[in-house]
Design a protein that fits this description.
- The chain is of the alpha/beta class.
- The chain has one domain: TIM Barrel, CATH 3.20.20.
- It has 8 helices and 8 strands; from the N terminus they run E-E-H-E-H-E-H-E-H-H-E-H-E-H-H-E.
- Strands 1-2-3-4-5-6-7-8 form an 8-stranded mixed beta sheet, covered by helices on one side.
Length: 230
């Protein structure tokens, strides 16, 4: 039987799951087409996922190297039909789980949250600008349902926005923070160009400057108590 996981980083990470030495796994498939996506090769659904037997061996080797956590990212993990079984399998082997998601599949997210120790949800833009950022038509109620689930739940989480030069404005930050009312941890992170991202114009766009992140963080701090620049 196949897991929800397509591939993984060969080395442990100390930055993808705060406070843990983590093994990072990637799922394939995403219903978004964000122009700045760092893993566009994972957007299509193609190829085989690893088996549960393979995952068991990977976890055993990881734990021998002091790994105590797993970060499941993508792609969009909650698009995978067996993400819940996969998370339960990892959790049963004594590893903490961080899940990265964009929140468009709240029904699946609700089922996988009990197996997770931390959730990082991307919040792309003000709701009104989501279709332009994600380059697809969405049920925006699904995004707000996922957000509400995290705010009302018991699992630690962060909401994070990648600031894209020319796409995000100060006015957007006011709108985002109003929509995120009650969020206990909001992270602003820079756009970093890569030659593989989908939007060719962004490939030549410079990394988001730190002072821009700081200016946006100052706006957010007038609405939210815990704003972090990463």
């Amino acid at each position: 039987m196949k897991t929800a996981l397509r591939t993984y980083l060969p080395r442990e990470s100390t930055v993808d799951f705060e406070g843990r030495i983590a093994r990072v796994f990637f799922t394939q498939g995403c219903n978004f087409r964000c122009g700045y996506c760092h893993n566009p090769e994972l957007i299509p659904l193609h190829g085989d996922n690893i088996t549960f037997e393979e995952l068991d061996s990977i976890i055993a080797n990881a734990k021998a190297n002091w790994v105590d956590g797993v970060c499941i990212t993508g792609g969009e993990p909650t698009l995978q039909k067996n993400i819940v079984e996969t998370a339960a399998f990892v959790k049963a082997r004594g590893l903490d789980i961080k899940l990265d998601t964009q929140g468009s599949f709240p029904n699946t997210l609700k089922k996988v949250i009990p197996h997770c120790d931390y959730i990082a949800m991307d919040y792309k833009a003000p709701i009104a600008k989501y279709p332009a950022i994600a380059n697809t038509q969405l049920n925006m109620g699904n995004i707000t349902r996922s957000l509400d689930m995290l705010l009302r739940g018991d699992v630690p989480y962060e909401i994070r926005t990648t600031i894209i030069p020319g796409l995000h404005s100060a006015e957007d930050m006011h709108a985002i923070c109003k929509e995120l009312k009650g969020t206990t941890r909001f992270v602003l992170q820079p756009f970093v160009p890569r030659h593989t991202i989908l939007d060719k114009t962004l490939r030549a766009t410079a990394k988001t400057e730190f002072f821009v992140l700081e200016e946006f963080a100052a706006i957010c701090e007038t609405y939210l108590d815990n704003v972090i620049v990463r």
